[in-house]
Amino acid sequence: MAKVELKQPIVQAIVDDITGAESVVLVDYRGLTVAQDTELRKQLREAGIIYKVCKNTMMKRAFEGTEFAALEEHLEGPSAIAISKDDATAPARILCKFAKDAKALELKGGVVEGTVYDVAGLTELAKIPSREELLSRLLGSMQSPITNFARVIKQIAEQGGEAAPAEESAEAAAEEAPAAEAAETPAE
């Protein structure tokens, strides 16, 4: 078998992984201990991120003609690829967080939703909370006024007798106002 025939399935596997991907991030993993690498892979797997160590030439061939072709300039030295099809910021968030503790892990660059980012850009993207966290914050802010309204209604109901006289005095004032207007009208 020719070398090209042996390499084609590997390239095709990478193409299959990046097809429909929201984001792809490249990292240099040199210097990670086995324990650190195992922990990183576990965290990425739990987040639904594909993480592979691939040859740069294989990734270059897989990236050709895709939005990830701009990553070609970052393919020097040993490279690992993190691919997410669901949460666009998850690879950057997890890898940046892990790189704080494991200084050997270096981000190289990435493409998130069609935009190419360098290390500084990926670091900024990592600060964006996950989709679930953003949705829970939105839900909390939507429920807050309803909760406050319910508390006010409950307090009024607990006071019971105090709210009723205020309503009665408002009704009495409304009844007296037309009578006062009728008395002023003949005087004109």
TrEMBL record:
Similarity section: Belongs to the universal ribosomal protein uL10 family.
Presence of the UniProt keyword Ribonucleoprotein in the record: yes
UniProt xrefs under CDD domains: Ribosomal_L10 (cd05797)
SUPFAM superfamilies per UniProt: Ribosomal protein L10-like
GO cellular component terms given for this protein: ribosome
Segments of skewed composition (Low complexity): 175-188
Annotated source species: Claveliimonas monacensis
Subunit record text: Part of the ribosomal stalk of the 50S ribosomal subunit. The N-terminus interacts with L11 and the large rRNA to form the base of the stalk. The C-terminus forms an elongated spine to which L12 dimers bind in a sequential fashion forming a multimeric L10(L12)X complex.
Keywords assigned by UniProt, alphabetized: Ribonucleoprotein, Ribosomal protein, RNA-binding, rRNA-binding
Protein name: Large ribosomal subunit protein uL10
Transmembrane segments: none
Alphabetized NCBIfam families for the sequence: PRK00099.1-1 (NF000955)
Coiled-coil region(s): none
Region (Disordered): 160-188
HAMAP family: Ribosomal_uL10
